User: What shape does this take?
Amino acid sequence: MTLRLYDTATRSVRDFVLREAGKVGVYLCGLTLQAAPHIGHLRSGVNYDVLRRWLLAAGYEVTFIRNLTDIDDKILVKAGEQGRPFWSIAYANELTLAESYRALNVLAPTYEPRATGHIPEMHELITKLVADGHAYPATDGSGDVYFDVASWPAYGSLSGQSPDAMQSAGDAPDRGKRDPRDFALWKGAKPDEPADAYWPSPWGLGRPGWHIECSAMCWRYLGPEFDIHGGGLDLTFPHHENEIAQSQAAGLPFARYWVHHGLLSIGGAKMGKSAGNALDLAYVDSLGVRPVELRYYYAAAHYRSVIDYSEDSLRDAATAYRRIEGFVQRAAERVGAGQLGELPSGFVAAMDDDLNTSAALAVLQQQLRDGNTALSTGDDVTVRTTLAAVRAMLDILGIDPLDPAWTGGGRSDDLRAVVDSLIALALEQRAQARGRKDWTAADAVRDQLKLAGVVVEDTPQGPRWTIGEQD
Ligand SMILES: Nc1ncnc2c1ncn2[C@@H]1O[C@H](COP(=O)(O)OP(=O)(O)OP(=O)(O)O)[C@@H](O)[C@H]1O
Ligand SMILES: [Zn+2]
Assistant: This one.
């Protein structure tokens, strides 16, 4: 394996060395389910889907865990505002998230654990931390349990901060803490919160702190030590710093690589549910941009770079993708879809270089130019090899236009044949109308097809149809 990944913990690009031959364990921090996902969250899922596809292409068995935070202060606030149980809000958002990821052709994770399903594992970790002097019950009788930051000298190493310069953890009142930087592992029940948001524990009724959830789920599904822990750059501190501290203090070696992706912003500000600048898939659809084009938009940027969203840049990405798609369709019509081919070495080198998708797409663009030239000169041999290579590259990025995920789950080939013959019938009528110089009737056929979303283009090989708008 020659993959190199940027590791936040060492602040360097490192050779990716597997913990166990042939197997990779990846944990990605998933959503806190207080609201439906925005396209910033979805960037996260798509980035790691590309990483996963790249690891799969290398022949590894990948265990990919992406969790759901279904209990949290923010969800409880929503429950209070809406007069609904917190779990109904979390579940509704979970369904929308699953639907959004399906729409974006993100492979289903190996498992998607929910925080509320792992309370016993959290208790086990917290009990050990308390026993070993790394955690303590709050001194104010609140039922909270805090991690003792001063007991862990390595605290701050992931985010490169000196513990002395750190502020209060801000996740609970400082009054019951030994040190304001201590963070909550367990939160005692509060009288004004709904009773169904609490679980019994050795420290009384309460609910988990956010950070301990991920440590427990990593441990449960990937074991004491695993390969890659991912999430957005915004999670480096405090979330991931706290995860490492509490996991290692509990005796778990934990993640070997920390891979963080850049944020999607608007006008320089992070897109956020709480920031009120969130755009979702329905919005993208309202612009006439398809999910596959949004996916291309994400892939066109390196995963660690900021994407500052604008409608123009999204539309440009959609146009660029349509050009690629146009080649794939024309080439497949000419020589058949064929099989996925070999990946060009330039593409492999770019992906191995910390998943440099923008450089990988430059290789694809070069092939596209060659393929288009071959189409126009009738060089079918080159068309066939280029199509196979282009589709193989697109497949790694999850955007092959001929992937059944985009064409309609495998049934599209059958449907395409049916639609083909119906359109042939309509075009035959148009040809007859033209033959008798009845231009009104001929145009009417074309307009009717257009209304049905079918665009007809007259080419030297005869009329060609596509679904969607002509660009
Ligand atoms: N604007 C964004 N761009 C890219 N990734 C994001 C963005 N916002 C959140 N994420 C990522 O999505 C994942 C789930 O995050 P989480 O539910 O904790 O979001 P959040 O930061 O609370 O969102 P918000 O600020 O919208 O409330 C994390 O990996 C986080 O880094
Ligand atoms: Zn997490």
